[in-house]
Write a structure and sequence with these properties.
192 residues
Amino acid sequence: MAIINTATNSKWFKGNAGENIVKATTACSLDSGIYQILNDITVSARNGTTQIDHILVSKFGVFVIETKHMKGLIYGNPYHKKWTQVIYKNKIQIPNPIHQNYGHVKNLQTLLKINEDHIYSVVVFTGESVIKTEMPENVVDPNGYVEFVKSKTKEVFDDSEVTVLINKIESNSYNRSRMNKATHVANIKGIK
């Protein structure tokens, strides 16, 4: 009889595992003197709040990172609302993470008042998933994430502007209290 650990199968655990992979990849592969990472940030949005897995701020731009820790085969079209995750013979419809992150990008762009050419959406798939359809360059695995970030080489912010952006994000983010998380979840459920 197989023992199933429900804690490691929970959405929270899977999300945390994926986010920890992105944190570790960032720490090991990107110079912390150039790239500043902010994790699990919740900011105000038009319809309440929005939670962003990671925001990477650098002189080369702001990278808004959505992490998906999944297994199975992933099929999707960048323009469709739903993608399909296939695990053995089970097909599960999942929201398009590109669309999800677009909302994060737009909210953050409005907050920071920066040019849309200086903010990038990145969707990082971690875990045992294989993307089976053609995807844009910003839908990647952890190694592709580093390559995508490093491909942006034009300096668009100076050091003082980077500091101002980080301070603005931090001063406008909600603290990570349980009550604020519950409020954020209620906001999401109210939108759907």
